[in-house]
Amino acid sequence: SAVISQKPSRDICQRGTSLTIQCQVDSQVTMMFWYRQQPGQSLTLIATANQGSEATYESGFVIDKFPISRPNLTFSTLTVSNMSPEDSSIYLCSVRTGIGKDTQYFGPGTRLTVL
Amino acid sequence: DAKTTQPNSMESNEEEPVHLPCNHSTISGTDYIHWYRQLPSQGPEYVIHGLTSNVNNRMASLAIAEDRKSSTLILHRATLRDAAVYYCILRALNYGGSQGNLIFGKGTKLSVKP
Known about the structure:
The complex is a heterodimer. By secondary structure, chain A is mostly beta strands. Chain A contains no helices and eleven strands. In chain A, strands 2, 4, 5, 6, 9, 10 and 11 form a seven-stranded mixed sheet that branches. A four-stranded antiparallel sheet of chain A has the order 1-3-8-7, with no helix packed on it. In chain A, a hairpin with a 6-residue loop joins strand 5 and strand 6. By secondary structure, chain B is mainly beta. Chain B has a five-stranded mixed sheet with strand order 1-9-8-3-4, with no helix packed on it. Chain B is globular and about 40 Å long. Chains A and B meet through strand 4, strand 5 and strand 10 of A and strand 3, strand 4 and strand 8 of B.
């Protein structure tokens, strides 16, 4: 299993600013992901965070808006840049512990409100 | 990604069994059927998954139709803590590529009445 912590747990930000969300896992994992959950909606995959290389973004998400870093096998960051009220969501980090491992684990999420 | 269809919501009484249906008529031979649930104010958590045979674990049972075009998640005795959104997801067995990514649909919101 994997225990995931995220910082901050919530934040209220002003339009036009940026916020970096941290994801820390208690063990080394092969794959890390970032999801967004808009109010009252399901989860949408933003990107796969790749160690040592650029993240792989899903359709509709771009690096300039959501830059992602993954410096090692236990840590990743997601930055929400130049925020607008439409970015108000819960952002969740998720991991898979190994190649061929079927279970995916999710962090508690970061609740972001943009004014 | 193959699609799943679930009812938007279901209600159950506490301590009674719950059968949550999922249709996936376009499932491919290599798609696994995964179920996750999301309790209020939490991230999703894994419930169960299977390929062809019925599966049981401490949380639930998964019944898969013979043609694999539908499946049912069974909670044997619902508790108030089981109130959550349940997601049925098809996921290819994958060894590192994007086909194995978890793509969430809308899920079924389960309410449990005392």
